[in-house]
Amino acid sequence: MIFAIPYQNERIAGHFSKAESFVFTNKSDSIIRNNPALNNDSCGGKKSLLALLKEQQTDAVLIRNIGQKILAKLLNANIRVFRTSGRLSLETLKLSELTELIDPSQGRPCKNSKKNCCKKEVNTPPRILKPQQNINGQFTVFGVKQ
Questions:
Q1: Which residues make Cβ contacts (< 8 Å) with residue 131, sequence separation at least 6?
Q2: How high is the pLDDT of residue 38?
Q3: How far apart, in Å, do the first and last CA atoms of the chain sit?
Q4: Residue 85 has what pLDDT?
Q5: Whether the Cβ atoms of residue 45 and residue 37 lie closer than 8 Å to each other
Q6: Closest by alpha carbon to 43, among 121, 124, 118?
Q7: Burial class (CB within 10 angstroms; exposed 0-12, middle 13-18, buried 19+) of 32
Q8: Bridge partners of residue 138, in order along the sequence
Q9: Is 35 exposed, middle or buried (0-12, 13-18, 19+ CB in 10 A)?
Q10: For the chain, which residues make up each domain, given as ranges?
Q11: Strand residue runs (E) in 1-146
Q12: What whole-number distance in Å separates Cα of residue 1 and Cα of residue 12?
């Protein structure tokens, strides 16, 4: 299972699409990629971020905060989304303490309603859930490479 983790200051970033970079890990190997949505005020940045997640064959993302629209896009792409609480470091994260988000309404409402991309409706078709996978145990990111 490949996890994508928004990463900033050696911790899980406070907001999904505003992270400096993303760590992609399968719990035995990890790489870091720059966030294509960072400093991009248009909808294209988030589209590029979603493309990066798909390119890395991401199965799940770990987040602290996420907007409703990008959450809907992740769920529609069959990428599982797990919320952490607090400012956890990657070394202390326990998978059993995560909450899985399964509906776009669990994300934050759009604050920038004046932007064209935020005016679009969030249409979430019924999704076929991937089978639940065991996510118990200690989570450690090994061998992070730049």
A1: none
A2: 85
A3: 21
A4: 75
A5: yes
A6: 118
A7: middle
A8: 94
A9: buried
A10: 3-145
A11: 3-8, 11-12, 21-25, 30-34, 60-63, 80-83, 99-101, 144-145
A12: 18
- Under DSSP, the state recorded for 92 is T
Chain centre distance of CA 16: 6
The three-state secondary structure class of 101 is strand
43's tokens: 């909808």
Amino acid (1-letter code) at residue 89: S
How many other CB atoms are there within 10 angstroms of residue 83's CB atom?
16
Instruction: Tell me the one-letter amino acid at 65.
Output: N
Which pLDDT tens digit goes with each residue over 58-100?
A: 999 999 999 999 999 999 999 999 998 766 666 667 777 788 9
Class of 3-145 in CATH:
alpha beta
Q: Which residues face 81 on adjacent strands?
A: 61, 101
Q: Which tokens belong to 55? A: 């390119």
Rg (CA), the chain: 15
Q: Which segments in the chain show pLDDT lower than 70?
A: 27, 41-43, 86-92, 112-146
Burial string for 118-146 (b: 16+ CB within 10 Å, else e) reads: eeeebeeeeeeeeeeeebeeebebeeeee
